[in-house]
Amino acid sequence: MDSKTPVKSDSSSESLYETITDDLVRQGYSINPEALPPSLAKALYQQVLELNQAEFDTAGIGRQQAHTVDTRVRTDEICWINGSTNTGQNWLNWAGGLREYINSQLFLGLFSFESHFAHYGPGDFYKRHLDAFKGESNRLLSLVVYLNPEWEEEDKGELVLYRDEHDMTGIKVSPTFGTVVAFLSEDFPHEVLPAKRDRYSIAGWYRLNNSIGNRIDPPR
Ligand SMILES: O=C(O)CCC(=O)C(=O)O
Ligand SMILES: [Fe+2]
């Protein structure tokens, strides 16, 4: 796969954007098995394999000053995607296309997007958590994409998405290659179960504009 191949917002991306948007309106989350354009998924997988160990950081919890590393909560490693490679840029363009589509349909005012590769080694996990707390963050929408070719059910490592704080069963999503999951960051607790193999993904968040976020939802 030539990583310079541009990934345009083709008709298959358009229909995926539409499905995600409709699902978000109906139920607040969207699960799309093996839906990312394959050329983009392959290039991203290649890229994550090429990242050398030094480029991954132990993942922490919270932002800026509140950032701490707590291995009771999560044990994965992450690497932020900044668009310095063609593949990184293609990914950001694809995620930007989704942002524009959602904004044009729902007037949510999603403003920016940030994302990182994540590597969970065998046995790694991320305990049940919310990606954002009401009134405390401007993360509105979470997006996760999986980069695991030939993932079998017995490899485990599912994402469990809980419908609300009372839900103890949840919906299990196997992290198969190209699966795309989106959910409202403040509404869906979720966790990552330990896997038997190396598990690669991208996790990203769409934010509201800080100043607008602060005006309509002032920090307490
Ligand atoms: O990799 C996943 O399935 C989800 C990761 C996650 O919840 C996070 O990074 O906040
Ligand atoms: Fe999360």
UniProtKB/TrEMBL annotation:
It comes from Kangiella spongicola. This is 2OG-Fe(II) oxygenase. SMART domains: P4Hc. Transmembrane segments: none annotated. One of its GO terms (biological process) is cellular response to hypoxia. Its cofactor is L-ascorbate. Residues 106-208 form the Fe2OG dioxygenase domain. PANTHER family: EGL NINE HOMOLOG-RELATED, HIF PROLYL HYDROXYLASE, ISOFORM C. Keywords: Dioxygenase, Iron, Metal-binding, Oxidoreductase, Vitamin C. GO terms for molecular function: ferrous iron binding; L-ascorbic acid binding; peptidyl-proline dioxygenase activity. InterPro entries: HIF_prolyl_hydroxylases, Oxoglu/Fe-dep_dioxygenase_dom, Pro_4_hyd_alph, Pro_4_hyd_alph_FE2OG_OXY. The keyword Metal-binding applies. Pfam families: 2OG-FeII_Oxy_3 (PF13640). Signal peptide: none annotated. The lineage of its organism: Bacteria, Pseudomonadati, Pseudomonadota, Gammaproteobacteria, Kangiellales.
